[in-house]
Amino acid sequence: MSDDKLSCESCSTETCSAKAKTQGETDKDFKERQELARRMCRIKHKLFVISGKGGVGKSSVAASLAISLAKLGKKVGVLDIDLHGPSIPRLFGLEGADITAVGDSIRPVMTDQGVRVMSVGFMLRSQDDAVIWRGPLKHGVIKQFLKDVEWGELDYLIIDSPPGTGDEPLSVAQLIDDADGAVIVTTSQAVAISDVRKSISFARQVNLPILGVIENMSGFVCPECGTRTDLFGSGGGREMAADMGVPFLGAIPIDPGIVPAGDTGELPVYLSGSSAGAQAFADVVGRLVATVEGK
After folding, report:
1. Which residue stretches of the chain have pLDDT < 70?
2. Could you tell me which of 29, 39, 160, 226 has the fewest CB atoms within 10 Å of its CB?
């Protein structure tokens, strides 16, 4: 369907699960499920970015993947479901941006690169406000982000999940039944690898295909002398991927320019250059696109 105003009953996709009510489903739940399906069927590819460990640069990777895809001419959206620690607005330089409602729809915030972004961070009165929600409320907000946000026609929706395998990634996995799969982010440290392996197990348990592993912060090359130092080790992500039988998408080096660029919202500008980090992300995205669109 190219128009989200069309009814699900008129959809030509016979296998669509939203064409008919399920057993025991209320009229209200059925209507909401159809509204969500109308939004999602206009998005070609839905990708989760997950990690069982915090501090591995997952949100930076999610934002960088979105920016790199946009550079390829793709229409991209980013949904930040890290409800307790939303980082996406800062990474895109969108802190303080306002969201607007048009009728029953919420308009995402648009970046200069044309990336459509939605995050609970746009709804906080202050960046210091804490979000203290239990599972059912989290599920409801995530459903609203998927169902009510005017995503429009997209090639890719990148979903940035919080660390771990809790309510947020589980809710999205339950709400989107045709996701292309998950991108797993790790560093090479054994303590990270141990937790990230759980993310792969989680994806398998919820029938979410695994698109590949990205090893972030993989080595540092001194810009002055060219000496490489493996501050967090190297090769652990590749070894884990091989051990668990999943693809390896590539390694992203520690790039001194990425941290200040992310802190100041200049990440899109930085990744448009020729730095080692920008090139590494371009290589990873090339493999990711080949995997997703080559299906």
Report:
1. 1-17, 125-130, 132, 221, 223, 226-227, 295
2. 226
Helix or strand or coil: residue 130? Answer: coil
What pTM does this model have? Answer: 0.89
pLDDT of residue 93: 93
- CA–CA separation, 63 and 55 (whole Å): 15
Cβ-contact 180, 211 below 8 angstroms: yes
Q: How many helices (H) and strands (E) would you count in the chain?
A: 10, 12
Residue whose pair of structure tokens reads 């989200």 in the numeric block: 4
Q: E strands within 13-148?
A: 43-50, 76-80, 100-102, 105-107, 109-110, 116-119
Half-sphere exposure of 150 (CA within 13 A, CB side): 13
Segment holding 59, helix H or strand E: helix 58-71
**Looking at the domain that runs over 42-293, which CATH code has it been given?**
3.40.50.300
Measure Cα distances from 251 to 129, 148, 224, 236 in Å. 35, 36, 22, 10
Extents of the domains making up the chain: 42-293
Sign (positive or negative) of CA dihedral 140, 211, 57, 269? negative
